[in-house]
């Protein structure tokens, strides 16, 4: 029995993805779902949200076996094998598999093994490397008997993200209200479909190989990459970007998502707030964000001692309910009980 993997991805950055995952992880844990958060973005911003710089520096400098995602897969670049991850216990039911800026050096290994995985022989190592993120995340899940794995990846279509998405059961897409997010969305759908089909060919090739019989216990991810919906980032009013400019792009999101990601040709006039594929509109929460970052906690855990008083206190309560509704909606869509 494997643990479902939910990845948040858009190949356009700056859409609030990392903050979203951070808050959802705490929310799922608050709903008594045991969570592994895996940071597969070489920028490691999600790791920085959970751990202070001194802790991160120690992890990266000491390079202890299994201490980060890169230290788990690094032996595969020579003659070794995957190392069991050492998780950071962040809170009750919440565990972090730390990211690592050194992970970017793993890109070459993943790129090189992609064509080798369609050969006639010597397939085990290429398939082991290409599925290594999934293998590590499932090891992490087994250690703490997780209910769900949440994954953060960078905004690109490179080999690291391809292997991260091969490991993914469900994909949620954070979006901003701008041309660049919509263009990223147009690229996303065809890319996911292509990677899904190419991975299926590799699974079929592996299944018909002699090596598959020699490694009967070797499990591989299915590469479902099932889109579960998108999330809109609420704009903050700026003088150089009037509300009309944001509305223009927001109104186009439902149709672009349907056509590019779901492959539907329907011309829908539906608004995001009424769209069943819109998981939520994520508020900015303005000054609460830096306050939460300073105290290294999610917005909805801020207290009066942290400075959350008056209107801020009300916003903290609103954030708690907003993220709880979103988490419950996601659990329902992916078929998990509350």
Secondary structure topology:
Blueprint: E1 5-8, H1 17-30, E2 35-39, H2 45-50, H3 53-62, H4 69-73, E3 88-91, E4 94-97, H5 107-116, H6 124-130, H7 132-144, E5 148-152, H8 159-166, E6 170-175, H9 179-207, H10 210-214, E7 226-233, H11 243-250, H12 253-261, E8 278-282, H13 288-294, H14 311-333
Helix pairs in contact: 1-14, 5-6, 9-12
Describe the structure.
The structure is a single chain. It contains 14 helices and 8 strands. It has a single domain, classed as P-loop containing nucleotide triphosphate hydrolases (Rossmann fold, 3-Layer(aba) Sandwich). It is an alpha/beta fold. Helices cover 46% and strands 12% of the residues. Strand 3 and strand 4 form a beta hairpin.
Write down the Rg.
Answer: 20 Å
Mean model confidence by pLDDT: 91
Domain count: the total is 1
Q: What fold name stands as the CATH topology?
A: Rossmann fold
| Biggest sheet record | 8 strands, mixed
Number of helices, where a helix is a run of at least 4 consecutive DSSP H or I residues: 14
What structural category characterises the helix and strand content? alpha/beta
Shape: globular
> How are strands sequenced across the largest beta sheet?
3-4-2-5-1-6-7-8
The CATH H-level homologous superfamily: P-loop containing nucleotide triphosphate hydrolases
Beta-strand content: 5-15%
State the distance separating the first and last CA atoms: 19 Å
The second-level CATH architecture is 3-Layer(aba) Sandwich
Which CATH class? Answer: Alpha Beta
Order of helices and strands: EHEHHHEEHHHEHEHHEHHEHH
Could you list the spans in which at least 5 consecutive residues all have pLDDT below 50? 236-241
Helix content class:
40-55%
Strand segment tally? 8
């Amino acid at each position: 029995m494997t643990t479902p993997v939910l990845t948040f991805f858009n190949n356009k950055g700056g859409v609030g993805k990392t903050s979203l995952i951070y808050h959802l992880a705490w929310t799922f844990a608050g709903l008594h779902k045991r969570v592994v958060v895996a940071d597969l973005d070489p920028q490691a911003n999600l790791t920085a949200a959970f751990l202070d710089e001194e802790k991160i520096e120690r992890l990266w400098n000491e390079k202890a076996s299994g201490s980060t995602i890169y230290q788990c897969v690094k032996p595969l670049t020579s003659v070794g094998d995957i190392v069991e991850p050492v998780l950071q216990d962040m809170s009750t039911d919440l565990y972090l598999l730390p990211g690592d800026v050194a992970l970017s050096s793993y890109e070459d290994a993943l790129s090189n093994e992609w064509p080798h995985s369609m050969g006639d022989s010597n397939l085990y190592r290429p398939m082991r490397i290409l599925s290594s993120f999934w293998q590590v995340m499932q090891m992490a899940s087994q250690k703490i008997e997780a209910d769900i794995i949440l994954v953060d990846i960078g905004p690109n279509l490179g080999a690291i993200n391809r292997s991260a998405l091969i490991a993914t059961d469900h994909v949620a897409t954070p979006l901003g209200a701008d041309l660049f997010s919509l263009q990223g969305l147009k690229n996303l759908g065809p890319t996911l479909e292509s990677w899904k089909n190419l991975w299926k060919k590799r699974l079929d090739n592996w299944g018909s190989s002699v090596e598959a019989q020699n490694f009967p216990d070797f499990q591989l991810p299915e590469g479902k990459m099932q889109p579960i919906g998108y999330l809109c980032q609420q704009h903050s009013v700026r003088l150089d970007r009037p509300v009309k400019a944001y509305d223009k792009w927001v109104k186009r999101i439902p149709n672009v998502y349907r056509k590019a990601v779901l492959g539907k040709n329907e011309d829908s006039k539906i608004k995001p707030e009424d769209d069943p594929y819109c998981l939520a509109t994520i508020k900015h929460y303005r000054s609460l964000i830096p306050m939460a970052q300073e105290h290294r906690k999610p917005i909805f855990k801020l207290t009066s001692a942290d400075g959350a008083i008056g209107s801020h206190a009300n916003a903290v309560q609103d954030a708690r309910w907003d993220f709880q509704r979103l988490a419950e909606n996601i659990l329902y869509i992916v078929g998990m009980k509350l």
